[in-house]
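Can't paste images in this forum, so I'm doing it all in text. The chain is below; anyone willing to post the predicted structure tokens underneath?
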Amino acid sequence: MANRSIPGVNAPAKTDLAVMYSFKSRYAAPNDPLGFSRYLASLPPALVFGIVLIPLLYYPVQALAQSTSMKDPPFAVLMRWLPLLITKGFALNILISFLTMALGTMLGVFLGLGQIAPSRIVRALSRFVTRTFQNSPWLVVIFVVMLSIPNKFSLFGESINFPDWIKAVLALSLPIMANVSEIVRGGISSVPSGQWEAAESLAYSRRQTLWLIILPQCFKRMIPPWMNWYAILTMATPLVSILGVGELVTTLRQAMAAENGRPDLIFPFFGSALVIFFLYCYPIARLTMRLERRFAVKF
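Text version of the structure:
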């Protein structure tokens, strides 16, 4: 009985039926909180150099092809507008991303703590808000918030303008709040239950346990997914251009309109926008993966 061969266990399987193996992603596992940064950071430096080099090679070719034309070549037009595109357009993208991440993090921390609150009502309400904004399309949230807030309001008899870019910060902070809430809840849940029991044995209150024992341990684990969401947020800031916020994409369209809408400017202008966003987010992704390896829990 001990020498009995069992096909597929201790002997080759006696079948010619096809077997479908499970798919294994090279870059990110399902529900990977660092999926975006993991994919971006996995790009080899040679490919990154090529992404930047292709537009630079395209512009001289276009310049030679149009050397006999009275119009300025696309490269010259881009160089003329590039300082404005960066200082006025992309700078607003960075400002929106900074303020959105700050506001969303502050709200998300309290919402995440609410998900582990002793009160069932607080937990249920916090989870409902988290799930609602976590699964809502960002563009829909932007439309609802920006169109529901008036452009002007009166305060003590004074008329105060409410800029569109501040509305964009409020709108984008809602999905960021929900995802930061999940980061906080997951980080706290990753701490072994023995830490709670040890704090309880020392007569620590719940607040003392959270702020003195639990949160200091999981803070480093929250940094990589938090940075991952900042990179995603930065890539999503051009969504606000649909409602006229003067960020990079809006400035690009205005620049092309000033150049009489020349079709040959589409690739240089929007290709340059892709390069700008990529060059900004790629180092963040690399740093995110480096911090993940550094702060990984080792057993």
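The radius of gyration is 26 Å. Strands lie at 152-155, 158-161.
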